[in-house]
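Comment thread on ticket #2218

A.B. wrote:
> Attaching the input chain for the structure job we discussed in standup.
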Amino acid sequence: MAIQRTQPDDTVSDDERAWWKEAVVYQVYPRSFNDSDGDGVGDLQGLVDRLDYVASLGVDVIWLNPVYDSPQEDNGYDISDYQAIYEEFGTMEDWETLLEEVHDRDMKLIMDLVVNHTSRDHEWFVESRQGNPEYEEYYIWREGDGDDLPNNWESFFGGSAWEYDEEREAYYLHLYDTSQPDLDWSNEDVRQDVFDTIEWWLEKGIDGFRMDVINLLSKVDGLPDGDPDSEWVGSEHFIDGPEMTEYLAAMDEQVLSNYDIMTVGEMPQLTVEEAREYADADGPLDMAFHFQHTKLDYDGDERWAVGEWDLTELKEIIGRWQNGLQDEGWNALYWENHDQPRVVSRYGDPVNYRRESAKLLGTFMLTLCGTPYIYQGQELGMTNAPWESMDQMRDVDAINHARELIESAGHESYEDVQDVVAYRSRDNARTPMQWDDAENAGFTDGDPWIQVNPNHDEVNVEAAEADDDSVLNYYRDLVDLRERKDVLVYGAYDDLLPDHESVYAYTRTMTENGDTEQVLVVLNFFDERPTVELPVEYDEATLLLSNYDRADDAPDTVSLAPYEARIYRLD
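C.D. wrote:
> Ran it. Output below, let me know if you need it in another format.
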């Protein structure tokens, strides 16, 4: 029989179902995905050329990172025109072809929405810095003479969050790069222009948005000093500000609710309680990204230092989110994205057990309750790249922090900080997609805009396609299993071994129309060989999937190989 549960109710009704809950999302960073014209930069036609590959993964949705017109100071997150395509990526006609081809393959397309800030080259900012009355208050300006900063807020990319503008003779706020001035969302005209932009894209037929740092829109009036000892100085005044819920509710009421779409908000410092407010059944968003599990390998709160991570802490974080959103809200599940280093290099073993640990980490992500997001190359088990010098790097965040680390600690060169900067750089996620073992990994016939990971000669799509035991084919099995097993989508979560330091075991249980289905997941996160007794009761157990060649053995006492993953059906 099934184990007795004490967690939230595992029954699922028809009105709890939604297409975006049952979807698997594949994230494409277009600059690094596939170059069709040999200029060294990925483009929209390159993505069209590889759509059959994406469809072969069994995914349902493509999330496309920004392709809007941009000076590319922050790789497209500095937008100069929301209704135009960056010329190196192609044309609006290319984008329209992409949308049509995605839909023809029964997939959906969601776009990145970046509306906390724009580029300094955006018409709104150009007019604002010139004092045009129509746009004068579109950004957050403070008078000054260039000597005294308005407050002590910090940019996430390092240094002050204020930049002095000689033309307007005032400071503007930029919570990210100096090229990305923050919009003033307290201005109703700003909100309306953004809402009109959202509607413009939805009318073109897209299927939703991933919303960049969306909980930073509301800033506290008066711009007081922030806590100098906080992880991000000033964040208590600009994250989840007083009008945040009001702004998103208006966006939903005026635009989003008129379309059958999916929305996911990227939300720094998000808590479960806040997630329920933003993304419950009546919330303005469908789900939200949090960052708690991506900080396990920080040294305390220090992002630019590497510490040891603890599996029991991961269990506590995941349990809090799985149980906290079981009845209210919905989880967004991910390990990697364009801002995170490769997970195999962080929480796996890229040297001795790259294949096994990549499969294990994929098993974990695709067997939890929520909508999974696979980042390009994750399905291959791609790893971090070596960054021998700062000249190889393109990530403005990593470069700025490398310089800060060199100066603040009295170091003499990049070599003194290379280990942490190379480990943490966002460039690790942005090396070109590894299609084959050719010189540039099949990404381009030209000179790639960023270095190709030298391990592409063995880690690539062509080799993986020819290997039945590859990470790629295992991911396909995982996606297929999740599609066939509703319990992996809607089932309640129960952690069986919360205190075990190397084995993570949990069940997913779902009751619908009086029938109960239960799945057991057992994961060994390290290179040890533990044996564990599991508190499960069953009449029959069937092994559904494993990253090792295993017999259909009983799961009550399990001896595990390094980085082994198993999924059982319990009857």
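A.B. wrote:
> Thanks. Noting for the ticket: The chain has four domains: 23-112+331-387+425-485, 123-173, 189-325, 490-570.
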